[in-house]
Amino acid sequence: MRILIVEDEAKVAEDVSAALQSAGYVPDIATDGEEGWFLGDTEDYSAVILDLGLPIIDGLTILKKWRSAGRTVPVLILTARGNWTERVTGIDAGADDYLAKPFQVEELLARLRAILRRSAGHAVSEIVVGETTLDTRQMRIIVDGRPLNLTPLEYRAAAYLMLHNGRVVPQHELSDHVYGVDELRDHNTLEVLIGRMRKKLPKDFIKTRRGFGYVISESDGVAT
Ligand code: CA
């Protein structure tokens, strides 16, 4: 899943980015408000971590611009500790959650998992489709009680499809959420990845809707 970090403090941005990477996400960093607004407006992210105090355009203005343009991406704002008016204004402007600086990255990751689950319509950290369970906390996929041995790319792709189970996910959307902006990719790369995943996941778990994309669904996903 791609996550946008809009943060002008290099150290904070890099720490958050490293934590997100090791948690299996694909982070992009914007270091000023203009770049942050632009990326959030034009790229497809699963969530945004948005600092409020930013050069060029402040975080609150960015959030209002995205929301009035109909962008529903979940946004976690970073606020100054003790500044409750900032938090209230931020939530009123459409933030999904907030975290006061300085914070522990573990808390950031937990809050991020929660807003991602809520945005996908799930309230728990485990998503079950047939005999397959996605555990977003442990970052693993369990089939019949046995955790699969997936590479980070395979996990990212499978987790994204499971979070959106029942919906056909177009190839370009899946590929956006699996690979970083700067990573080289094409249709074949994704097809090869899906091919490898199919050998590990239950038979017919990932279905191809030719010309549309991939789908995981419980109704017709389990071979009888
Ligand atoms: Ca700042």
Give a written overview of the molecule.
- With 224 residues, this protein is an alpha/beta fold.
- It is 41% helix and 21% strand.
- The protein contains eight helices and eleven strands.
- The strands form three sheets. Strands 2-1-3-4-5 form a five-stranded parallel beta sheet, sandwiched between helices. A four-stranded antiparallel beta sheet has the order 6-7-8-9, with helices on one face.
- Helix 1 (10-22) packs across helix 5, helix 2 packs parallel to helix 3 and helix 6 (152-163) packs across helix 7 (171-178).
- Calcium ion binds at residues 8-9, 51, 53-54.
Number of extended strands: 11
Structural class per helix/strand content? alpha/beta
Helix content: 40-55%
How is the biggest beta sheet arranged?
5 strands, parallel
How big a fraction of the residues is strand?
A: 15-25%
User: Widest sheet: strand order?
Assistant: 2-1-3-4-5
Query: What hetero molecules are in the model?
Result: calcium ion
Characteristic terms for this protein:
five-stranded parallel beta sheet, four-stranded antiparallel beta sheet, 224 residues, 41% helix, disordered C terminus, binds calcium ion, 11 strands, 8 helices, alpha/beta
Concise description?
By secondary structure, the chain is of the alpha/beta class. The chain has helices at 10-22, 33-42, 59-68, 84-92, 105-119, 152-163, 171-178, 187-200, and strands spanning 2-6, 26-30, 47-51, 75-80, 97-101, 126-129, 132-135, 140-143, 146-147, 207-209, 213-215.
